[in-house]
Design brief:
The chain is mostly helical and 201 residues long. It is built from seven helices and no strands. This is DUF3043 domain-containing protein.
């Protein structure tokens, strides 16, 4: 027979109550902030099971053609400038305006590959005079690109503020977007240019 000291039960009950209160506080502090959904609700939100693998070569070929057609249509829509197919960095009327400003002018950056090829050829010619001219040409071309990028950035800012004066624009991002596009060859740009050279934007 165990002897209980007076007040022993009171202290244990108080300890259990304090532990329960602390546990409730920890659960409340680290909880999800929302009730756990029922199993039927959770299963209802899950996507359906994946389609079964094709059983015949004809069905596999049909699925492959459907997937290729979807990819081609998405690629064509993005190349045409359709916002629903474009990535996030190219969406919106402001970005389209920046692309039009870049595509409507001749940019020094679009000749980068041509000049780089000439410089590469010049490095392989065993002549100190040719190599010195090559270094000078490379340095001069970079100065031209910097100056042209400054003029392009100013034009982008002015055009965007004229067309969309009441919107909050991140001009640095828009200018860099236009300059990076101007360094690509015109036929390789994506989305494809929608304005002709010299067009008024």
């Amino acid at each position: 027979m165990k002897l209980r000291l007076p007040g022993r039960r009171d202290r244990s009950e108080a300890t259990r109550a304090a532990d329960a209160d602390l546990t409730a506080q920890l659960v409340k502090a680290g909880g999800k902030g929302r009730p756990t959904p029922k199993r039927s609700e959770a299963q209802g939100r899950r996507p359906g099971p994946p389609p079964p693998p094709p059983t015949t070569r004809k069905e596999a070929y049909r699925r492959m053609r459907e997937q290729q057609a979807t990819t081609r249509s998405s690629r064509a829509g993005a190349a045409a400038g359709d916002d629903s197919y474009l990535p996030a960095r190219d969406r919106g009327p402001v970005r389209k305006l920046v692309r039009d400003v870049v595509d409507a002018r001749r940019n020094a950056g679009s000749f980068f590959l041509v000049v780089a090829a000439l410089v590469l050829v010049g490095y392989f010619i065993p002549s100190p005079a040719v190599q010195s001219y090559t270094v000078f040409l490379w340095f001069l071309f970079f100065l031209v690109i910097i100056a042209d990028s400054v003029f392009l950035g100013r034009r982008i800012k002015r055009t965007v503020l004229e067309r969309f004066p009441n919107q909050d624009h991140r001009m640095r991002g828009l200018v860099w977007y236009g300059i990076s596009r101007s360094t690509m060859v015109r036929r390789w740009r994506f989305p494809k240019p929608e304005v002709a050279l010299g067009a008024k934007v």
